C-alpha cells in the first residue's frame, strides 16, 4: 500500500482575513451565475441545429460545442493565477463583458468558422468568470456549511439551466434561430450589476511568500499529487463529458433528426431534465454535510450511466421527456461535487486547485461533444432524402455510460473528509491530519 500525503504543515494555516460567509453574499454570487447559465442554456436547444445549418457533419457540430471549452482549458489556470493578484470581482466583470460581446458575434456569424471563433471568445469569458467565481465561493464557504452554500450556488446555476432552454426555444421559434444569442448578451450584461456589490477578498496565500518559495509548476504539482483530488476531478471530467456530449449534443440531434422535434420542443425536454436535477441537487448539498459526499457521487455516476443507456430508446416526445426527467434526477445527485473537490484540495492553494478543477472539467467539455459527435457520425443510420448525417444510434450513448461507470469505480478509493469529520465529532475525536491512502 502506498501512502500519499494530501497536505503539508501549512494545510490548516489561515489563508487570510476572509469575511464570514453570509447568505446575502452567496445569493448575490448565485444570482449572477444564474444569469450566466440562463444565457448559456438559451443557446443549448438551437446550437447543434444552428451549426448544422452551415452544412457540416455531426463531428463539426460537436466541435462548435467543444470549441467553447477548448479555450477554457487553456485559460482556466491563468485565470486562477490572475485571481491571486487581481480583485476577483474585476476578473468576473471582465468575463461577463466577454460573454456579452462573443454572444453578439455568434448571432451575427455568416460562416461556420466565424461561429467557432465567437464560441472560443465566449469560452475565454467563461474561464475568467467561472474560475474567479469558484475561487471566491471556495474562500468564503467554511467547512461546516460548505455543502449547503455550494449547493445553493449550484441550485441557482441549475435554475438558469432550467429556464434557459425553454426561453431559447421559444425565442428561436418566434424571432429566428439566432435570437437566443442576442438574449444571452443581454443577460450576461445584466449580471455585471450585482457583481459590483460583492466584497473584496484577499488571496488565499501571501503573494510574496508564494513567489519566493514555490513556482507555478510546483503549485500545480502539489495539487495534482493529492490522490483524492485527482479521483474527484476525474469524476467531474466524466460528468462534464456527459453534460455536453449527451445533453447538449446528442439529445438535440436525436430530438431533431430521429424524432422530428422543433426548437421549442427540444427546449422543453432540456428544461424538464433541468427541473429534475434542480429538485435533487440543492438538498443533496446539505445532506452531504451530514452523511458525506462520496456515496451520493458514486450513486450519481452509476445511476446516470443506467439512464443514459435508455435515452436512445425514446420513440416520441413523451418517452423522451420521461427518460430525460429520470436522467436529470440522477444527475442531481452530483450536488456535492464542488464541495467535495474543495474538501480534498490543498486549502493554502485554492486558486490553483479551483483552476485545475475547472481545467479538468473543461477537458470533459471538450472531449465529450467532439468524440460523441464523431461516434454519432460513423454509426449514423442514413435516411434517404435528408440533409443531415443520419439517425443517431445507441452506440455513442453506451460509450458515455461506460465512462461514468469507470469514474464511479475509481472514486471508491478516494477519501471523504466530510464523512470523516462527522464520524470524529460523533466519536469525540480530534480531526486527524488529512491524508490519502490508495491501495
Q: Explain this structure to me?
A:
The chain is mainly alpha-helical and 439 residues long. The chain has one domain: Growth Hormone, Chain: A, CATH 1.20.1250. 74% of the residues lie in helices and 2% in strands. The protein is built from 18 helices and 2 strands. The protein has helices at 23-42, 47-52, 58-85, 88-108, 112-140, 146-175, 179-190, 192-195, 207-213, 216-224, 227-258, 263-291, 294-310, 317-331, 337-343, 350-378, 395-411, 417-427, and strands at residues 2-5, 435-438. Strands 1-2 form a two-stranded antiparallel sheet. Helix 1 (23-42) runs antiparallel to helix 7, helix 11 runs antiparallel to helix 15 (337-343) and helix 13 packs antiparallel against helix 14. Residues 1-19, 206-213 and 431-439 have low confidence and may be disordered.
Strand and helix layout:
Blueprint: E1 2-5, H1 23-42, H2 47-52, H3 58-85, H4 88-108, H5 112-140, H6 146-175, H7 179-190, H8 192-195, H9 207-213, H10 216-224, H11 227-258, H12 263-291, H13 294-310, H14 317-331, H15 337-343, H16 350-378, H17 395-411, H18 417-427, E2 435-438
Antiparallel strand pairs: 1-2
Amino acid at each position: 500500500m502506498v501512502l500519499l500525503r494530501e497536505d503539508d504543515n501549512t494545510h490548516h494555516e489561515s489563508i487570510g482575513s476572509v469575511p464570514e460567509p453570509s447568505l446575502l453574499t452567496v445569493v448575490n454570487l448565485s444570482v449572477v451565475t444564474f444569469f450566466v447559465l440562463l444565457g448559456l442554456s438559451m443557446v443549448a436547444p438551437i446550437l447543434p441545429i444552428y451549426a448544422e445549418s452551415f452544412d457540416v457533419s455531426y463531428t463539426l457540430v460537436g466541435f462548435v460545442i467543444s470549441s467553447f471549452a477548448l479555450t477554457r482549458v487553456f485559460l482556466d489556470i491563468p485565470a486562477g493565477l490572475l485571481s491571486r493578484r487581481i480583485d476577483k470581482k474585476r476578473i468576473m466583470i471582465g468575463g461577463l463583458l466577454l460573454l456579452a460581446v462573443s454572444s453578439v458575434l455568434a448571432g451575427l456569424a455568416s460562416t461556420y468558422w466565424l461561429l467557432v471563433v465567437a464560441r472560443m471568445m465566449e469560452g475565454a469569458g467563461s474561464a475568467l468568470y467561472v474560475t474567479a467565481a469558484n475561487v471566491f465561493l471556495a474562500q468564503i464557504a467554511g467547512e461546516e456549511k460548505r455543502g449547503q452554500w455550494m449547493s445553493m450556488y449550484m441550485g441557482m446555476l441549475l435554475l438558469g439551466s432550467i429556464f434557459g432552454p425553454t426561453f431559447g426555444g421559444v425565442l428561436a421559434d418566434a424571432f429566428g434561430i439566432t435570437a437566443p444569442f442576442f438574449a444571452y448578451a443581454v443577460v450576461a450584461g445584466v449580471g455585471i450589476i450585482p457583481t459590483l456589490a460583492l466584497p473584496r477578498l484577499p488571496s488565499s496565500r501571501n503573494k510574496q511568500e508564494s513567489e519566493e518559495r514555490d513556482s507555478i509548476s510546483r503549485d500545480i504539482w502539489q495539487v495534482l499529487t493529492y490522490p483524492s483530488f485527482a479521483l474527484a476531478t476525474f469524476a467531474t471530467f466524466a460528468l462534464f463529458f456527459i453534460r455536453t456530449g449527451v445533453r447538449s449534443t446528442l439529445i438535440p440531434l436525436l430530438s431533431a433528426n430521429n424524432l422530428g422535434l422543433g426548437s421549442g420542443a427540444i427546449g422543453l425536454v432540456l428544461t424538464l431534465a433541468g427541473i429534475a436535477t434542480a429538485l435533487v441537487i440543492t438538498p443533496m448539498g446539505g445532506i452531504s454535510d451530514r452523511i458525506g459526499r462520496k456515496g451520493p457521487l458514486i450513486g450519481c455516476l452509476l445511476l446516470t450511466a443506467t439512464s443514459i443507456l435508455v435515452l436512445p430508446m425514446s420513440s416520441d416526445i413523451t418517452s423522451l421527456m420521461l427518460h430525460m426527467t429520470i436522467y436529470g434526477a440522477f444527475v442531481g445527485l452530483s450536488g456535492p461535487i464542488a464541495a467535495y473537490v474543495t474538501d480534498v484540495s490543498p486549502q493554502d492553494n485554492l486558486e490553483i486547485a479551483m483552476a485545475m478543477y475547472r481545467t479538468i472539467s473543461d477537458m470533459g467539455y471538450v472531449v465529450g461533444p467532439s468524440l460523441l459527435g464523431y461516434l454519432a457520425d460513423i454509426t449514423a443510420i442514413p435516411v434517404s432524402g435528408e440533409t443531415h448525417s443520419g439517425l443517431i444510434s445507441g452506440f455513442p450513448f453506451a460509450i458515455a455510460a461506460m465512462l461514468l461507470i469507470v469514474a464511479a469505480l475509481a472514486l471508491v478509493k478516494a477519501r471523504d473528509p466530510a464523512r470523516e469529520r462527522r464520524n470524529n465529532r460523533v466519536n469525540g475525536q480530534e480531526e486527524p491530519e488529512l491524508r490519502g491512502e490508495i491501495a
